[in-house]
Write a structure and sequence with these properties.
It is a single chain. This protein is an alpha/beta fold. The chain has two domains: about 1-45, no CATH class; about 55-255, TIM Barrel (Alpha-Beta Barrel), CATH 3.20.20. It is about 45% helix and about 15% strand. The strands form three sheets. Strands 2, 3, 4, 7, 8 and 9 form a six-stranded parallel sheet that branches. Strands 1-11-10 form a three-stranded mixed sheet, with no helix packed on it. It has a two-stranded parallel ribbon with strand order 5-6. Helix 1 runs parallel beside helix 4 (about 40-45) and helix 8 (about 130-150) crosses helix 9. The protein is globular, with a radius of gyration of 21 Å.
Length: about 260
């Protein structure tokens, strides 16, 4: 009996979409030991739509990401630092930032970095309708494509805010929402050494690391972070190369994995 319960729990936890059907069958065939299992009840509940926070990877790789929404003080310095180590990163840019700094967008693209969407105007997406979200994404994507020649496929929610409505709408237009599991906190103005220690202590295989292009101490912190991760055996790749491509799921923590 215990083995039967264990197998049922594992199946339902890995096949959440089908769990409601299975529970209905359990009622029909009188299997209360399945119905009353707390693990299975949890699995049958509605599953929250999540962005990807990190990726389950066997090899040591991670992604450096930078949000660009307002200032542009350090973009070229970041490009130069990344070039020194031959590292490619992903920049999530706001459409209004593209309007102000098209030369920087082109420089990022020409240097081989990914330029992806961070919305057109850094709005609170949870307060927008589905039509407004889709139009916002289209407007930003059009601006990026006009400069780089490539249309973004990844999106980072402004303020890191989202709900099911936001993520489902992003998915519906064929984009993938990307969060992070390592926050450098560079936006708080903490010192370069604090940024360095924070990032290096938290990175694991498959991590997505959050920086900002105009944070005060990021250019000072970045070389030591890159050197430290390389010394630990990490390859640093753009987010699109970090992601799993097909037949994946996202668990309750936002980790993308192969079932």
């Amino acid at each position: 009996m215990h083995y039967r319960i264990y197998r049922a729990k594992r199946w339902l936890l890995r096949h959440k979409r089908e769990s409601a059907v299975v529970l209905a069958l359990c009622f029909m065939f009188g299997l209360p030991w399945v119905i009353n299992s707390s693990a299975i009840v949890g699995a049958s509940a509605s599953v929250r739509a999540l962005p990807i926070y990190c990726v389950a990877r066997d090899n040591k790789c991670a992604s450096l990401t930078f949000d660009a929404a307002w200032g542009n003080e350090d973009t070229q310095a970041l490009i130069d630092i990344l070039a020194k180590y031959n590292v490619k990163a992903t920049f999530f840019v706001v459409g209004a930032w593209v309007d102000k700094y098209p030369e920087s967008v082109k420089a990022l693209h020409d240097a081989g970095h990914e330029v992806m969407s961070h919305s057109d105007d850094h709005a609170h997406f949870a307060s927008l309708s589905a039509d407004e979200i889709m139009q916002n994404l289209k407007t930003c994507n059009d601006k990026i494509e006009a400069v780089t020649g490539e249309r973004p496929t990844l999106f980072r929610c402004p303020y890191g805010e989202y709900d099911d409505h936001v993520i489902n709408t992003v998915n519906a237009v064929g984009m993938t929402a990307i969060q992070w599991n390592v926050d450098s906190l560079d936006w708080k103005g903490i010192s370069a050494s604090e940024i360095n220690n924070r990032v290096l202590s938290k990175v694991v295989p498959g991590s997505i690391i959050l920086f900002h292009n105009a944070a005060e101490n990021t250019p000072e912190a970045l070389p030591a972070i890159i050197e430290g991760l390389i010394a630990e055996g990490y390859s640093l790749v753009p987010v699109s190369e970090l992601l799993l491509k097909d037949n994946y799921e996202i668990d309750h923590t936002g980790m993308q994995y192969k079932p």
